[in-house]
Amino acid sequence: MSKNKHFVIVNPIAGHGRAGKLFPSVRDELTRRGIEFDFHYTNEPMEAPDVAKMVIEHGFTRIVVMGGDGTINEVVNGMAEISSELPLAVIPAGKGNDFARMSGIPLDPIAAIDLLLDGQPRPVDIGCVNDERYFVNGLGIGIDAQVARDVMRSKRSQGARAYLGSAIRQVIRFRAFPVSLEDRSWSHSGSCISLGIANGKYVGGGFKMAPKARIDDGLLDVCVIEDMSRLKRFAALPQARSGKHLALSQVTYRQTDSVTLASEAKLVAHIDGEPYRLPGSRFSVSVRPKAIRVIVPPSR
């Protein structure tokens, strides 16, 4: 086996089928560059964690994910389950690609292949819900979670345009929900339209919901947006996209290593952009500092 034997996990339906269409070109480029690899197409949800564990057990030296944030989430869950330090590389081909954006990985799949040759491993944090489910970008509850569901159901628009279009619709439709949060030295209760617990800055194809977040600072960024009129919601939307919403009086922002949430309402949630069923009416979210290593550009 060569020094760097890569295993590429491809989610062919990522990005509304974009990953499957692009992989033949990626495969040819890998071969042209002399990169040794095997690959596997995932066939069903939550298959990738088991594939990732198989890759680790069979002596491959790098895992490469070709798909979107949801595919990365699945692979990381498999890696975290057995505490693997195997470097993870990403060839973005999803709808939002927020983790790649945060990590400095080129969004063009062919350009991302360069990192397999000259990138360097960077230790990064991951989040965890109830010590059961891991995430790389964040857990979202409320409007952004409903937007993620809308985009998944859409068969037409893709990428940032799809997220923005759904966000505009949900600004009108979404109903606020009650929630309580607390960590060791802080608590907050209120009626919210959005609650994010973030590891990275971005959600929804580039919305900078957690502008202070870093994926290697050992902290989670909690952003609570309380209810407001529809007119104010529309005014806040571009601010949330650019990361300037923290100045709003309805926004509470806190950095912590662990937080507990409680709500009796039926909450709509996403984890790394994929619909997620919360584990109960009360649960905790914590950070796992520098739990994985991701191949990023040398300057990062």
Description:
This protein has 300 residues and is of the alpha+beta class. It is built from nine helices and 15 strands. It folds into two domains: 6-118, Rossmann fold; 138-289, Tumour Suppressor Smad4 (Sandwich), CATH 2.60.200.40. Helix content is 32%, strand content 32%. A hairpin with a 3-residue loop joins strand 5 (120-129) and strand 6 (133-135). Helix 7 (143-153) crosses helix 8 (159-173). The relative contact order is 0.17. The mean pLDDT is 92.
Return the CATH architecture of the largest domain: Sandwich
**CATH classification class of the largest domain:** Mainly Beta
Overall number of domains: 2
Radius of gyration: 19 Å
Written as H for each helix and E for each strand, in order along the chain, the element string is EHEHEHEHHHEEEHHEEEHEEEEE
Tell me the number of helical segments per DSSP (H or I, 4 or more residues long).
Answer: 9
Looking at the structure, the CATH topology of the largest domain is Tumour Suppressor Smad4
Q: How would you state the average pLDDT, rounded?
A: 92
Structural class: alpha+beta
Q: Name the shape in a single word.
A: globular
Strand segment count: 15
Residues in β-strands, percent: 25-35%
**Whole-Å distance between the termini?**
29 Å
Q: How much helix, percentage-wise, in residues?
A: 25-40%
Poorly predicted spans: none
Largest sheet: 11 strands, antiparallel
